[in-house]
Amino acid sequence: MLTFYHSPGSSSMAVHVALHETGAPFESKALSLQAKDTRTPGFLAINPNGRVPTLVIDGRVLTEVAGCLWYLARAYPAANLLPAGDVAAEAEVVSWMSFLASGVHTASRQGPEAVHEAFAVAEKRLAGRAWTVGDRYSISDIHLFRLYWRFKPAHHLPDGKFPAVEDLYARVLARPAVQKTIAAETAAGYALPTSRAP
Amino acid sequence: MLTFYHSPGSSSMAVHVALHETGAPFESKALSLQAKDTRTPGFLAINPNGRVPTLVIDGRVLTEVAGCLWYLARAYPAANLLPAGDVAAEAEVVSWMSFLASGVHTASRQGPEAVHEAFAVAEKRLAGRAWTVGDRYSISDIHLFRLYWRFKPAHHLPDGKFPAVEDLYARVLARPAVQKTIAAETAAGYALPTSRAP
Questions:
Q1: B157 and B104 share one domain
Q2: pLDDT digits (tens), chain A, 198 positions
Q3: Which of A49, A55, A98 should be substituted to probe chain B, the one whose Cβ sees the most B Cβ atoms within 10 Å?
Q4: What residue of A is the nearest CA neighbor of B75?
């Protein structure tokens, strides 16, 4: 049994997309960052660091976007969210997710210029390809999608500046699992991305 | 065939340790960050982002500590650097490496206080356990080892403040693969960790 602690519109959205991609049954626990729901004694007893996403798998607690995405892709192989049978391609997925977490996500702390530079590196890494790894969709595309979804409006990334990233973003946005996630998170209540990034 | 571009004493050291743990044959290319060896047209043709570690696997270019560690662990399973047959434990390794890259490594940009806080989170995550994941050594331990090796002296982390991290560090430091790596990197020439982090 999976229990998914998340905050609508935050980084946990990437994991929410993967849950819908896999079709895994899960119990959704939406927490409000504004209301400090992640700082209550109850939640801190589950994740002492008070962060989302937190995925509880039969009592085991898993954190970090990359860790949760990895679990879902491996536990639900029918969803084809990882390159199969190619260890170097699998390592490229890990490489992309590490770069996205450390090089792109953290750039927002340093301001819009750092975010622009980070997406310029992502664009260079894509080198015009359709997907982050190989020739099909994987969890690292979900991760990149969610960061661009949030940071484009938050940091005023101009149209046309990162064409390969934008193209990938548009294709991921159109996926049923993503539309389902956005509908669910909107229903749970969150501010659509405008001028601030969490 | 593996070609390993690294800079002695830098983050690439974690990958160097894993290469020695696996016993994989590799060609070592030591680059000096001070001499801007990672900014030459020759190296930028291999990795346009001009970063180490860069691991070239039969012509395929792999980057990021987490990506390179993952490849080596999966391509050389006899080295036992990943939990086998437990998808949730595998995801915990990915989670730890993502946390280390985004939450610990990048803290050094924000100064000593942020580094202290990051290691406090690592200590809390370890919760007194001997290893980052499960009951044995894996690539996420190598990653944590290398960050503490560098940041303890660079950011004056006091003895006794992070006992579980220190204990893990001491056990990893004693491993033959680590001693071999330190000897090789010292021979290639680097400043031993003192007051600055790269």
A1: yes
A2: 999 999 998 999 999 999 999 999 999 999 988 888 999 999 999 998 899 999 999 999 999 999 999 999 999 999 999 998 899 999 999 999 999 999 999 999 888 999 999 999 999 999 999 999 999 999 999 999 999 999 999 999 999 999 999 999 999 999 999 999 999 999 887 654 443 444
A3: A98
A4: A87
- pTM exceeds 0.90 for this model: yes
Report the chain A residue with the minimal C-alpha distance to residue B118.
Answer: A49
Q: A68–B74: do the CB atoms touch at under 8 Å?
A: no
What CATH number corresponds to the domain at position B43? Answer: 3.40.30.10
C-beta atoms of B64 and A98 within 8 A? yes
Instruction: Kindly tell me the sign of the dihedral angle through the C-alpha atoms of B112, A107, B30, A140.
Output: positive
Using alpha carbons, list the distances in angstroms from residue A108 to A22, A47, A49, A166. Answer: 30, 24, 20, 18
Distance between the two ends of chain B, CA-based, in angstroms? 29
Range of the domain at B26: 2-78+177-188
Reported ipTM: the value is 0.94
Bridge partners (DSSP) listed for residue A60: A57
**Nearest CA distance, B86 vs chain A (angstrom):** 10
CATH code where residue A95 lies? 1.20.1050.10
Q: Is the domain of B106 the same as that of B166?
A: yes
Measured CA to CA, the distance from residue B121 to residue A135 in angstroms comes to 37
Contacting residues of B for A57, CB less than 8 Å apart: 88
Residues of B in contact with A125 (CB under 8 A): 49
For residue A44, give how far its alpha carbon lies from the nearest alpha carbon of chain B (Å). Answer: 12
